[in-house]
Amino acid sequence: AATRRFKFNVEWKSVTRLCHTKPLLTVNGQYPGPTIAVHEGDNVEIKVTNSISTNTTLHWHGIKQLRTGWADGPAYITQCPIQSGHTYTYKFQVIDQRGTLWWHSHVFWQRASVNGALIIYPRMPYPFKPKPHAEIPPIVFGEWWNGDVDAVEEQMMLGGGGPNVSDAYTINGLPGPLYPCSSSAKHTFVTSVSRGKTYLLRIVNAALNNEMFFAVANHTLTVVEVDAAYTKPFKTSAIMIAPGQTTSVLLTADQVPDDSTGGMFAMSLTPYVTAPIFPFDNSTAVGFLRYTNTTRKTRMMSSQQQPSTFTIPTNFKLHNLPDMLDTQFAMKFSTSLRSLATSKYPCNVPQTFDKRVFVTIGLQLQDCPPNRTCTGYDGKRFFASMNNQSFIRPTAAILQSYYHDLKRPGYTTDFAEKPPAEFDFSGVDPFTLNMNTEFGSKILSVPHGTNLEFVFQNTNFLHMENHPIHLHGHNFFVLGYGFGNFDPNKHPAQYNLVDPVERNTVAVPSGGWAAIRFKADNPGAWFIHCHLEEHTTWGLATAFIVQNGPLPSQSLLPPPHDLPSC
Ligand code: C2O
């Protein structure tokens, strides 16, 4: 296998958007960060240098990290942070995955701007048709803050603020013409296509706190892969994508370009919201697909190189974009995703489980600390929990403590396997139930090879938000979703055990549940958390240890010599 080496420098760079110039945390001065492109089977080495005054870590979101948990990246789970002026080289092999993933910082709220796409080119030809003529540069969704993101994080620590506090959504760091000061080609993502050709679009939702809808006016999208696992191709007018998720789609440039818009079709990005309790940002980021009448092969253009020889149209239409409250569309989209499940790409969903862990996930309200102002709700502050534990990351990394068998590891392996409190929220006053959280660092520990099932029950009072739950170290199969309470006597009989979608992040519906299953066969310590950054901050997380198996090939590799210490 080839070894691909990258050098990442975490550094500040001055960036201007929406007429605001501010220092932005970047990798190599790029926003979004550099794309990592590798082939299935490659060894990857990314040398990360911390050139800022605070800690950092990077995470390769969706890479399974088979036996190489040391390279996974979440601070205090698999490693101590890389301190200012220090370097750490992440080393892993890309095994049995192909498609689109991404990478991001995994400490504080740094991932707001420290993120980028990670492409894994397949060993075998694409299993879908038509074979794309070219790829469009990866499309990374994000959020822009005119102010300081650290301040937002601090406000969140006090449990306050609305769920959306950014100033713009962005497509490859660019807000587009519907925002103030960004109606120029310089601040709008534009990509060129030739009429009649088919393109592969690799889409990443790196937004901090919003599930998103994305559509291209007048064009149909064919979903072929999510989270670096192929799906049965299906056609859709738009996609729903949660933070942490990635989606690859085919798009055929089959429209007649309209001269009045310069042959441009709008790509639009807007949040998907389940209940607008708080003043939500319902703004829309816009980019363009630009038909060129030349037949010459479209060159790959990096997101930084924007052609500026044309003007952004003002008379564009946002066709195909669902209403931001369209839960039906979101659910239909999610349930349309199926594993490819062919002999070349079999669907290895475990037919039985060894352990079912039932987890309530939700938000709670706590009294505001004295002499502080909390803006959560009703003068209180928010917290979030899994089975009523708001997770606190230990001050030493769990993986190191576990590996070295340290006496005071800062965590315990007694995470509750079912909710300690009632969770029936249907028709019950939501404020009287499920309001207790305890802070803690309880996690799970399972033997190697355990067929593990998680049922996540979203208990949010006020039916507020979906929770995109992300697992590190494994892909899982989504056996089913539903609204209301999960019923262990009824719902498992309806599970899809034939071709459930395989992924690493599942959007658990507001006021509903999702069931996932996988073989826990990657030794290490793995974070599980909501990929809405504010909810992770509020404690919607835990972790699980997969113990070594009996064979040497089932054991965690020793830590690298340059692993940071706390
Ligand atoms: Cu995308 Cu724990 O991460």
From TrEMBL:
The record's free-text note on cofactor binding: Binds 4 Cu cations per monomer.
Compartments, record wording: Secreted, Extracellular space, Apoplast
Domain Plastocyanin-like: start-end pairs: 10-123, 138-293, 416-548
Presence of the UniProt keyword 4Fe-4S in the record: no
Catalytic activity: 4 hydroquinone + O2 = 4 benzosemiquinone + 2 H2O
Gene Ontology molecular function, alphabetical: copper ion binding; hydroquinone:oxygen oxidoreductase activity
Required co-factors: Cu cation
SUPFAM superfamilies, per database record: Cupredoxins
Ranges in coiled-coil conformation: none
Highest taxon, organism lineage: Eukaryota
InterPro entries tied to this protein: Cu-oxidase-like_N, Cu-oxidase_2nd, Cu-oxidase_C, Cu-oxidase_fam, Cu_oxidase_CS, Cu_oxidase_Cu_BS, Cupredoxin, CuRO_1_LCC
PROSITE patterns in alphabetical order: MULTICOPPER_OXIDASE1, MULTICOPPER_OXIDASE2
Keyword vocabulary terms for this entry: Apoplast, Copper, Glycoprotein, Lignin degradation, Metal-binding, Oxidoreductase, Repeat, Secreted, Signal
UniProt xrefs under Pfam families: Cu-oxidase, Cu-oxidase_2, Cu-oxidase_3
Cellular component GO terms, alphabetical: apoplast
Keyword presence, Nucleus: no
GO biological process, one term: lignin catabolic process
Enzyme Commission number, as recorded: 1.10.3.2
Function recorded in the entry: Lignin degradation and detoxification of lignin-derived products.
Family: Belongs to the multicopper oxidase family.
Protein name as it appears in the record: Laccase
